[in-house]
Each structure stands twice: as C-alpha cells, then as structure tokens.
Amino acid sequence: MKRSSSLFVWLCLGAILVFLYAPLFPPLLLALQDPNSGGFSLEGFLSIRSDPTLTGAVTNTILLAVMVGIAAPLLALAAAQAVRAFDVPRLIITVILLPLFVPGVSMGVSTSLFFNIAGIAPSLFTMVMIQTLWALPFAFLIILTVMSGFDTIYLEAAYTCGANRRQAFWEIELPQIATGLSGAAIFSVILSFNETVRTAVVQGGNNTVQTFIWSRYQQVGLTPSIYALMTIIIAVTLLLILLLAIIGRGERPAN
After folding, report:
1. What pLDDT, on a 0 to 100 scale, did the predictor assign at position 65?
2. Per-residue pLDDT band at 1 (split at 50, 70, 90)
3. Of 133 and 156, the one with more pLDDT
4. Into which CATH architecture does domain 42-250 fall?
5. Which residues pair with 33 in a beta bridge?
6. Poorest-confidence range of 93-102, 119-128, 174-183, 211-220?
C-alpha cells in the first residue's frame, strides 16, 4: 500500500513537471525544422549571425548582464550590511524590496519619465539602472539569508586581535558569504538576461535579445531564427540555474 502511494505521488509529480516544462521543447523542434521542406535544418541558428540588429541585441544583452551581475550584488551587500549596522532594519528591508511590488509596466514608465525629466537620454546606462533596480531585491534576499548564518563573534574576535572593520570584513566575513555573493550575481544575470517589459520602456534605440524577440514577433511573427534564439535563451537560462543550484549545494555543510 505504501509503495503504491509513493508511486502515485511520483507519477503526479512527473505529470506536473511535464506540464510545466513541455512548452520549452517546441521552439527547439521548430528551430531545427526547415519551414519549406519540413526536414532537419540548422538555418535558423546560422541566420542569427547575419542579422546586424540581432547581433547588436546579443552584445547589449551580454554587457547588461555583466554590469547588472556586478552592480546588484554589490548594492545588495551594502544594504545587507546596513540592516545589521543600523537600528532601522525593517525600513531598509522595505525600501529594498519595494520594486517587487510595483508592476513592471508602471516601474518602466515611471522610470522613463524620471529620466526624461532629468534630461537623461535612453541608453545602456538607463537599461542598467532599471534592470539593477529589478534585480536588487532578489540579490539582497540571497545575501541577507547567507549573512544570517554568519556568526558575528568571528568579527568581534578579529577586532580583539587588532583588525579594523575593513580587514575583518575582507579576511573573515567575505570568505564565509562568498557563495551568497556569487549566487546573487548569477541570479541577477538571469533576471537581466530575461527582462523585457521594464527594459523596453527605457531602451530607446537599443535592443536586448528579449526586446528584439518581442518586437520582431509583433512585426513579422515567429520565424526559424526567432525559434533558434528562443532555444538559445532557454538553454543559457537553464545552465545558469544549474550553476546556481551547484553553488547552493556547495553551501551545505558536509556530514
């Protein structure tokens, strides 16, 4: 009886996973299909390099992901340190997490309006700003969680031994929370890589891969090159999530 119940649970879990992840496979199948003959073809992937607008979008996406992957964890680390150092932790947490509760379109439009009033033209800078604002709460939660497992008695011991605050952080605390920083960086890259709505409002004449796919879909519909691009995005995202899981696994203490 117990074995049959366990089997039923696993079958239900498998069915749920298939339902959730089955939509990831059609883009790959259609990307490998010749639209004319219906046979196997890599033309969709090869045609990506021949589109200068798309290659520029890929370059922008990589640059944005790198910059957001650096900026968001550093700002999140500073905020997490402020939570511990100041007497208003709830206020700091509320301010940092606020972007999570603002709809994407509203955040994008209000940010674009702010840049317009401030005389800041749409550019990679404005795109980095809004993507960092979106990634910051997630990076903050990751780092704050990791820091909660750090015993500050080690810092007190370092101060007793004559270390200043910078030395104690750099030599004692940072190695202990390094996995949290790397996890926050990877998660920020994932969010930057897949952000569309907020970025589209402030991008101006620039494009990312996601905004390119969305605009091209609205203009001409889905094509083999778009299917190929979607496949690459899904694959890269899954690889980053796998890397994030590996880092999280490395945080567990050995038995």
Report:
1. 92
2. low
3. 133
4. Orthogonal Bundle (1.10)
5. 40
6. 211-220
pLDDT cut 70: percent of the chain above it: 94
Q: Which residue has the tokens 């879909």?
A: 217
Q: Report d(CA 197, CA 211) in Å as an integer.
A: 8
Among 97-111, 145-159, 179-193, which stretch is predicted with the lowest mean pLDDT? 145-159
The DSSP annotation for the chain comes to -HHHHHHHHHHHHHHHHHHHHGGGSHHHHHHTB-TTT-SB--HHHHGGGG-HHHHHHHHHHHHHHHHHHHHHHHHHHHHHHHHHHSS-HHHHHHHHHGGGGS-HHHHHHHHHHHHHHHTPPSSHHHHHHHHHHHHHHHHHHHHHHHHHTS-THHHHHHHHTT--HHHHIIIIIHHHHHHHHHHHHHHHHHHHHH--HHHHHH-TT---HHHHHHHHHHHH---HHHHHHHHHHHHHHHHHHHHHHHHHHHTSPP-
Q: Rounded to whole angstroms, how far apart are CA atoms 233 and 177?
A: 29
Entry pTM: 0.82
Buried b or exposed e, range 164-187, using 16+ CB within 10 angstroms: eeeebbeebbeeebebbbbbbbbb
Q: Can you name the residues that pair with 40 across neighbouring β-strands?
A: 33
Q: Are 80 and 139 in contact (CB under 8 A)?
A: no
Would the pLDDT of 189 be above 60? yes
What residue has token string 């709460």? 137
Give me the pLDDT at residue 251, please: 56
d(C-alpha 152, C-alpha 141), whole Å? 19
